[in-house]
Amino acid sequence: MLKYSKIVGIVLLVFLFAMCNQKSKNDTKETILKGSIDITVDETVKPIIDDQVAVFEGTYYGAKIIVKPKSEVELINDLLNQKAKVVVTARNLTAEELLRFEKSKIKPRVTPFAIDAIALISNKSNNDTLIALKTVLDFMQGKKDTGIKGLVFDNPNSSTVHYMKELAKVKDIPSAGVFSFKTNNEVIKFVSENEGMIGVVGVNWLSQPSADMVDFIKKVNILGVKGLKENKYYYPSQNDLAEEKYPLARDLFIINCQGYSGLGMGFSSFVAGDIGQRIILKSSLMPVKTPGRKLQIRSQIINDKE
Hints:
alpha/beta; 13 strands; about 40% helix; globular
């Protein structure tokens, strides 16, 4: 009888352990609002994604999102090689890239969520706060211009370089007069300390600077830009982005290749939803969907003092 009781006890312990282990596995299972995920982000738009992640994690306590900033070239390569499953990009996938996914039987979920701007900046000592886009493109094509001593980019593999090269219709940027660093903050610092240089940065780095960058940003001008077919100068403001007047605007996307209903889908829906779009609206960018406003209409004015 004692031997039988011991056997029953062992069976019960094994059963309880299995149940606890199963519960533990279920608790860690990734869902659209729970779990952990790495998101590779185009480094030129990292500030706005940091804001989105902070609010998302503050709303859904079981979610953990690790932001990994990379250049556009690195980001796309990681996505194509399936080293990254969810990415934030400053461009959509090309037909060739989509074909590669199709051959791998992967259907990317592409979610547009904001309109971004590439800003041109100069040293505060430069009294001229206007520049023609043609002047910048001519410089990238190797044509000399006395108004520009040099162009400063964040990274030779960045989305800003890719964007400007396509506009200038050049495969390579000239070696003379063009400088590249690693981050947008390095570009801002360099321009703030060197006259005659034109910096090319994501506007979000100027509108939402970290505490250590505030003094440097005070020493630069955000330039008004005249487009190739325009006679007026426009700034990377929400108004000019909304009216499609600023010539260096671009769309932002979240591309999800998880292939299942995971945290990547939940985060994409959040960013493209009402709260996420309000976060975009409060930044310097333009949301793809303007959040609605509720108006309270009263039949009479109420005096709070009464």
